[in-house]
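Readers outside the structure-tokenisation community will struggle with the description of the input data as it stands. Showing the layout once, in full, would remove most of the difficulty. For illustration, here is how one protein appears when written out as sequence plus structure tokens:
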Amino acid sequence: MLAAYILGSVPSGLIIARVVSGTDVRQHGSGNTGMVNVFRAAGPLAGSLTFVMDGLKGFIPVFAAMQADLPIWGVIAVAAATIAGHNWSILLRGKGGKGIATSVGVIGAISPVVGLIAIVIWIGLLVTFKYASLASMLMVASMPVMLAIAGYDVRYVLFGVVLFILAVIQHRENIFRLRHGSELKINLGSTRVRHSD
């Protein structure tokens, strides 16, 4: 769990944005180091690389825990630790991202098919509605449903529900803006993203 938390704490978005564009994403938008804020501040290449690296931060420790044949609760504990590291990084004094890409990586280690379908759902929702926050929350909501349909252990399904609750909490400001019609949409035709995620 400690190793997973430390790996999760590595601020992929901050590092990638600096390397790709020399940008400190903490000085832009919401100031978090997640994929959408990186996309907005440093461009699509940095945003895409951040999604991959944040996803791997979730995938690698959970995959390792499963290969080590840890019990399900042990796997879930490792998964929770790496997401906590990403959201509340010790290297960023308790700040970080919103855990969406890392959650996809975690679920992808448990079920690669569910992880891949979740990514497709996210892309489809983003193209349809243009709201990254809405697409992210609905995508995370779909994961426990898919795990249940696929017959995975109820503990994994419940963990997926916890991930959805966490995603809602992390997006509470976005939800407020969505309700009041002030959430900004992503301009998919631009190299920048007008969004405060």
User: Anything to note?
Assistant: Residues 63 and 110 are 7 Å apart (CA to CA). Residues 44-67 form the longest helix (24 residues). The chain has ten helices and no strands. The chain has one domain: 2-179.
